[in-house]
Design a protein that fits this description.
Distance between the termini: 27 Å
Shape: globular
CATH class of the largest domain: Alpha Beta
Radius of gyration: 20 Å
Strand content: 25-35%
Bound molecules: cytidine-5'-monophosphate
CATH topology of the largest domain: Ribosomal Protein S5, domain 2
Number of helices: 10
Number of domains: 2
CATH architecture of the largest domain: 2-Layer Sandwich
Low-confidence stretches: 1-13
Mean pLDDT: 93
Order of helices and strands: HEEEHEHHHEEEHHEHHEEHEE
């Protein structure tokens, strides 16, 4: 029996519908070390999965086609990373099983929270488990890395150091919320192009990776991070280029945030609080100024529930 037949055989034993939750991330540190010959930037970044998620529903179709529907109509197309992940699996294994994809977005889009990357990784994991596909973690990692720099992180999630383009993952033990329990995210009402943010970096923004290394050591030795351990090489450029982001940062500080950091290439900003009372009060102030503000927290890996019927 070849791989394709094996995959199809297994499908007969599983249900017709699969739901998977797909969690966002923040970057606790993001060191850009420099520009590479391939045009990407060399990174050292510590990412943490957070309790803010999209839901993907996959339904088997009788015909050999893949359809996509999203509650954000601008994402209902074949460029969507969920469609590309499904097509990559079908192609690798020579599968002809059709699928209808429904994607319920709750995570802000193009926001520095890895929503699209997480959707792709969750889809790969769901297909592998649902159809019991003959794909190793290395196969999944290769497909993930070919679709985007952040996607391999989401195959394991939790807390991890991500290096290279972002695709080389070292899992770290997650004790971060022990010191900073509640996470408040504020999404300014603009979109930021990741490619543009990287293009606008100056050599002064580059680091030797020291922030991420120091944070890794702090997590290993003290099991905790302080606000002063957090860093993002992309922050200066984004704050300078986008007045909306600089304004939101100031509003967060005025509302009672002790510090503010950018997640990824933004525009989402985050801060943390030890108590829910304090976090909720600041969230409320920002929401009363019409900011999109999410109160959430870090989560461990394994929080990617997959359900089939
Ligand atoms: O890999 P991904 O498609 O997510 O990256 C989006 C864009 O961000 C890339 O086209 C590139 O311009 C920039 N990028 C980069 N260095 C990285 C990751 C992303 O320059 N390590």
């Amino acid at each position: 029996m070849n791989q394709s037949q094996d995959g199809l055989q297994q499908q007969a034993t599983s249900g017709n519908v699969c739901f998977v939750q797909s969690y966002a991330k923040i970057n606790l540190t993001l060191d850009v070390l420099g520009k590479r010959a391939d045009g990407y930037h060399e990174l050292a970044t510590i990412m943490q999965t957070i309790d803010l998620y999209d839901t993907i529903c996959l339904t088997r179709l009788a015909e050999d086609r893949v359809s996509m529907n999203c509650n954000r109509p601008e994402l209902s197309n074949d460029y969507n990373l969920v469609v590309r992940a499904v097509q990559a699996v079908r192609q690798k294994l020579g599968l002809h099983q059709g699928l209808a994809i429904e994607l319920h977005k709750r995570v802000p889009v193009a926001a520095g929270l890895g929503g699209g990357s997480s959707n792709a990784a969750a889809t790969l994991l769901a297909l592998q488990q649902w159809w019991n596909l003959p794909l190793s973690m290395q196969d999944l990692w290769e497909i993930a890395a070919s679709l985007g720099s952040d996607i391999p992180f989401f195959l394991t999630g939790g807390l991890a150091l991500c290096e290279g383009r972002g695709e080389r993952i070292t899992p770290l033990a997650s004790h971060w919320p022990a010191t900073m329990r509640w996470l408040l995210l504020v999404k300014p009402d603009i979109s930021v192009s990741t490619a543009m943010v990287y293009r606008n970096l100056t050599p002064d923004d580059y680091t030797n990776g020291g922030w991420s290394r120091a944070a890794e050591v702090a997590l290993q030795t003290q099991s905790k991070l302080q606000a002063s351990d957090l860093y993002n090489s992309l922050e200066r450029g984004v704050l300078e280029q986008y007045a909306e982001v600089a304004r939101a940062r100031q509003e967060m500080l005025d509302a009672g945030a002790h510090y503010v950091r950018l997640s990824g290439s933004g525009p989402t900003l985050f801060t943390t609080f030890d108590t829910l009372t304090e976090a909720a009060a600041v969230q409320q102030k920002l929401q009363s100024q019409s900011y999109e503000a999410y109160l959430t927290h870090a989560i461990h890996p394994g929080n990617n529930p997959i359900t089939y019927f």
